Each structure stands twice: as C-alpha cells, then as structure tokens.
Amino acid sequence: MQKLIITGGKRLGGEITLQGAKNSVLPLLAAAILCKGRVTLGNCPEITDRYAAMRILNHIGCRTSGSGDITETDTTSVGCCEITDELMREMRSSVIFMGALLGRCGKCRLSFPGGCDLGPRPIDMHITALCRMGADITERHGEIICTAPGGLHGTKLTLPFPSVGATENIILAAVSADGETVIHNAAREPEITDLAGFLNVNGADIAGAGSDTVRINGRKLSPTGEIYRVMPDRIACATYLSYAAIVPHGEILIKKCDHTHLDAVIPVFEQMGCTVRVFGSNIYLRSPDRLESPDTVRTMVYPGFPTDAQAVIMSDTCVAAGTTVFIENIFENRYRHTGGLGRMGADIRTEGRVAVINGRERLYGAKVSAPDLRGGAALVGAALAAEGVSEIDNVEYIDRGYEHIEQILSSLGADIRREVVLS
Ligand code: EPZ
Predict the structure, then answer these.
(1) From the CA of 396, how far away is ligand 1's center (Å)?
(2) pTM for the whole thing?
C-alpha cells in the first residue's frame, strides 16, 4: 500500500499541463476492438485505469503497448471474449467492453463490474438496451453471459436516465449492428462526443453525440491508423483548480484544457471569490485571502455540475466563510470522503443525498484513508490547506485517475511525498 505525506499551509502557484481524460481513454480503448486493425491514441493519461484497460485488450488477444501518453494497439485478432473476474475487479468501467465485444465477436462473458463503491452500480440500462438490439444476456453467479446469435440489429430506445456508460455501450454495440439505432435521452457528456469522434474518424456513422438524441448507422469500420488525441480531463482540471483555490492567494494556470467542459464549475469558483480567466485552451485561477461559501451545489448530468467534482469542491467549502449545501443527485453513496474531512476538523453533516458544510477558519493535518478516487482527491486538497502534516493512504484509488499527482503538486509548491507502506 502507498500513502501521501502532505505538510499543509504552503502557498501554491505555477502552471501545469492537463492530462488526458480517464473517462474518455477507457471507452476509446474499448472502441479500438471494433476497428480490427492498428489504433494509436495520444494524450492518454498515465493512470492505472488506462493500464488496466490495456491488460484487458491484451487478454482478449490484441497486441497493446504504451509509452508516455501514446497507446498503440493492434486489434486485428481477438481470440477471447471473456474478461476474467480479476481483470473486471480492477475497475468499474470494464463493463464498457461488453458493447464492444458483442459488436466485434457477437458474444462476451464478464463478471459484474468492480471499481469505486459509490453505492449500487447497476447495469440494468446497459442490459435492457443490448437485449433490444438482439443480444441474449443471462446473469449467473455474478457473471454476465452475452450472446447475439442472430447478430445485433438497430433499434430505437429511450434511456430512463441519461447514463454515460449505457450510452457508450449502446453506441459501441450499434456501430457495427445491422441498421439504424436511435438513442433518446442519451448522456450528453463530452466523453460521448469524444467516443463518437474517434469512431467516425474510423469509418462509423454517428450523429448527434453530445445531444440527447444520438443516431448510429451500423457499418463496417475502416481504421485510418491516424493518431487520435484523447480529450482533456475536465474533472482533473476542476480538481487542480480546487487545489489552488483552497489555499490563500493560490494561483494556477492550467494549459491544454477545454473550458467549455467546465461551464457549470467555473461559476462556483467565482462564487467562492476566486478570479478565473479563460483564454484559448488555458484556464487561470487566483484565490482570495479566504473563500466564501458558494450557492447550493446540485450535481446533475452534463451540462450541469458534475458529480465527479463534488468531493473536491466540498473540500474547498470546508474552509470557506459561511455554510454550503450540497445535493448529490447522481450517486447514492458519494459522501464517503466526509469522514476523512471531519477528522481534519471540517464541520459536515450529511443526510441522504444532502450535505451541509459549515466552513471553518482552518483544518488540521490527520491520518486519513482515500475512500474512492474523487474522495481521495478531496482529502489531498484538504491536506494542502490543513495546518500540520496529513497522511493519506489507499493512494492506489487516486492513482486510478490522476497522473503524477505528487510531482505536479510539488511543482506548484506543495510539500508532498509518497511513501510505500510495507504491510
Ligand atoms: C461514468 O460512470 C463515469 N465513469 C463516472 O466517473 C461518472 O461519475 C458518471 O459517469 C456520471 O457522470 C466512467 O466514465 C468510467 P452512469 P457510469 O451510468 O457510466 C445509475 C469517476 O470518478 N445507473 O451515468 O457508471 C448509476 O447507478 C467516475 O471518474 C443505473 O441505475 O455512470 C448512477 O446512480 C465515478 N443503471 C447513475 O445511473 C444503469 O444501467 C449514473 O450512472 C446505469 C447507471
């Protein structure tokens, strides 16, 4: 196990280049299976979820390698359509391989997904939609067994909720299905647009990605072999903005981002008293002497406030003047970081999907554990502001979604180091 040791209270200032998006590189790696050829992705983040997805590709018979931000995979031959329980447990998003394997091989076998525990992570919408497209799916002893004996065919369907993963799985299954598929109430997240962009460059016919109605005409893909650059990580961007915001007079310039992905997040920083400037693909933030509490933060589907940024913004509000209310509308159990924040002196009360934070003048260093990916990132933010030394273990959660976090924070002036804990 590894832990981060952070001595808080340091002023943060400097510039960073934003990583590629975790929640885009994963579906793109799954989509590569449909290309039946050589695929090269650029701007891939150096995070453990990416390497887990690469291991899945190699397990099914692809030849995949990565160097820095470049991932290359040859998906000409796919001999195995089963994803082992061990591989599935490494990350929740491995369910995204279901649509791609069904589209490529007409069958697949995988276990129920693992990943962060944000409450029940059902995949009923995925299964219902794929069955509407001609798949037979049975669940037995924690395994999902999918076949498409007659192949997949297009259909018209309306998602009961604009699920990101379900929208991605349907697109992946529909790309080579027979006929047209129309998804109503589709997720509108930028990662859906990135997935459609990649597939269309490789010969797919997808329209409407990024809107609530997506149309996919099934056809044979023809991979170009051109390098496709993964979109910037909007959640990592919000995270690093929250780190500069939580310390007095913090300053950060984040390069290679897309500020349009943060239209619901930037106003919250401004409500907290930060100065935010966007120009080109850069975002600049400067924090005040002390943050003010923002208006109520309600997490919503895109383009609303992203649930993945809720935890890191909550850390900021723990030291803001005033009271902040959060309403978590997407996941049932996404306040697991409040325990660690409380150990650092935060005044937080939660009741179901509501959290009320009474800002304090200061937080204090403590020993805490990362409960999940974004909760861990939130504890890092609190530790940067806290008086004294904090130890955050279960850093493996954080490494799933943030590349080189201690190097980046050190370059901004933080006193942070990683220790390996020999258990
Ligand atoms: C994706 O998860 C992201 N993960 C999540 O980011 C993100 O929080 C989420 O979308 C919402 O934006 C990846 O892209 C790898 P959903 P996903 O399907 O696809 C319920 C992070 O920190 N639901 O939109 O799993 C579900 O339980 C991660 O980077 C069903 O009930 O999210 C949840 O309450 C965390 N049945 C809600 O919908 C289904 O069949 C949203 O889930 C599917 C989902």
Answers:
(1) 20
(2) 0.97
